[in-house]
Task: structure prediction
Amino acid sequence: MRILLAVDGSKFSEAAIQAVLTQCVRLGTKVAVLHVAERSSVFGYPAGVSMKEEKLTPVLVKRVAERLRAAGFQVKMLVSEGDAAEEIIDTAADWGADLIVLGSHGKRGITRFLLGSVSATVALHAPCAVEVVRVPSGRRDSRSSSKSGLKTSGQPSKR
Result:
């Protein structure tokens, strides 16, 4: 199996890394770790990639690759520059990925409308299966929460 793992150094990409580490068979699985350095723009004109991102990108990809190798995966490191969704889709097609794994930043409403969603675009246009991994929200079931006014037995709590 060939898995393309898209990372950006966020807690969302950490969730995607954990999904690969915990859910995927290691023997014979090849993982390409991809980071896309998105170009910034100034007044609508391309300005390139920030120097900070240019320095940190290889370190990020190498760190993730080392974790996956230690877990028994065969790993390839990839760095690209451009629109994240386009680069992920194109890389998956060129490399022959069977699965793309990436985190979801959970954008909603106007933010998603204006900025778009990388994971949604990848899921719609990818040449292979896509797993979008969400970070657990930390919310508990309201029926078992002591703040809900109910005990776990379903009886009202005394406050």
Summary: Helices lie at 11-23, 51-70, 84-95, 109-115, 118-125. Confidence is low (pLDDT under 50) at residues 111-115, 139-159. Residues 2-148 form a domain with the Rossmann fold fold (CATH 3.40.50.620).
